[in-house]
Amino acid sequence: MKVDFTQDKISELKGEIVCFxxxxxxxxxxxxxxxxxxxxxxxxxxxxxxxxxxxxGKLGFKHLLxxxxxxxxxxxxxxxxxxxxxxxxxxxxxxxxxxxxxxxKLPGDNITPQKAAQxxxxxxxxxxxxxxxxxxxxxxxxxxxxxxxxxxxxxxIDMKDAQEGIHIGTIMADAQNYxxxxxxxxxxxxxxxxxxxxxxxxxxxxKLDIEILDKSRMxxxxxxxxxxxxxxxxxxxxxxxxxxxxxxxxxxxxxxxKGVTFDSGGISIKPSQNMHEMKYxxxxxxxxxxxxxxxxxxxxxxxxIGIMPLVENMPSGSAxxxxxxxxxxxxxxxxxxxxxxxxxxxxxxxxxxxxxQKPECIIDMATLTGAIVVxxxxxxxGLFSNDDKLSEALSAAGEETYERVWxxxxxxxxxxxxKADFADIKNISExxxxxxxxxxxxxxxxxxxxxxxHLDIAAVDYVKTPHPYLEKGASGIGVRLVxxxxxxxxxxx
Length: 493
Ligand code: BES
Ligand code: ZN
Ligand code: ZN
Hints:
There is one protein chain. The chain is an alpha/beta fold. Helices cover about 35% and strands about 20% of the residues. A hairpin with a 5-residue loop joins strand 12 (about 325) and strand 13. Helix 3 packs parallel to helix 4, helix 8 (about 285-295) crosses helix 14 and helix 11 crosses helix 14 (about 480-490). The two termini are about 35 Å apart. Bound molecules: ligand BES and zinc ion (2 copies).
């Protein structure tokens, strides 16, 4: 989707459909007010409340949709994403190729015109994503191709600011949609080999360095925890390392993503109900691809390594068993008490490998625990970190992107719970308490002295219930968050 900007007033513009974003209690300009007068009893301007009208030639547009932005005092940037998303969905429902989104006035004093334009572009582009590759009735697929953002009160948004905001918002949302388009692929297609191919394509497009470790290489290196998960599957595991700005004298950051292409649970098999959703257990890794794409397109002044351990967790005659003991890449031994706690096993090796690169910090994204859904519901990402500054950067980025994080403790008492009878550490605590935290402190054993943050994205990886700008399916949540955090860390240095 393309997003344009114009400073022309609504009365000067033409087209099929215009959506006017209206701050509750503000007086709309007369050309809009004339349509509201008639129907005022039904419309107050509450957030995402709408009222539509054919213009009967009184405007350059044939159809008008007024979208409420809610009260000025309660305004936040995400309301613009939501409203732009709604505008695109509405236009799509009416099979319009183009929609104009007019903003009367920016509510909130701390919201810059650039940020507002960015949010509008993001909401519009994110709302336009659909996973239609496997639909054969192609004539039923419809996409809105263009959104024009119009600053209805001339001079309210500066042209340069707006264009910069749209530029950044387009990169962010395109990267998120890219991650979604891979994450939505089913597990019979998105196998380690295939995903490595996508990573190669990305490396060509974005001029990234790429290195792929295969099974024999990982065996030689001693990545036995990762290999133990993979041994039950007919698909060979791979570990992909992508690097942006390799060799440049810039601070190095590292992002690591859990890439379980399908999580059946292994011998500790999952119940069959909803098991199909475990194709989304590769979300962390797909988000890593999205982060690398955006970081390179935004030309962030950092070096960035992305690491994706790619395995399938299946039960078979060659699968690992509960009770097996493996030695991880950093030399620590793990007693595998539950083969369904496989994400932490592949991340153990991937994180130890990441720490070896000596980055400023490591951020990992993983659909690690079902317990995080119980803990935070679908509205937050679980954050675990050994560093306050990094946590603050992620929290601030979460507020800005509305991919919010909530920090949970990783106190030594939790690590005690993970001590094993017959090895250094076990992969679950049999107490069944604090499931997300015990997962996080397990990971902590493998990062050495590195500054690190773990994002448990298991509650937000895909959308099942209606969301203002994300259609049912992969959400790509985490991509904008991490890019924003990296950009914040890079500029604060
Ligand atoms: N991939 C799952 C976590 C998950 C669950 C993601 C639901 C999304 C939705 C992970 O590998 C897993 O199975 N974790 C176990 C851990 C347990 C065995 C300690 C879980 O959450 O049940
Ligand atoms: Zn699992
Ligand atoms: Zn899993």
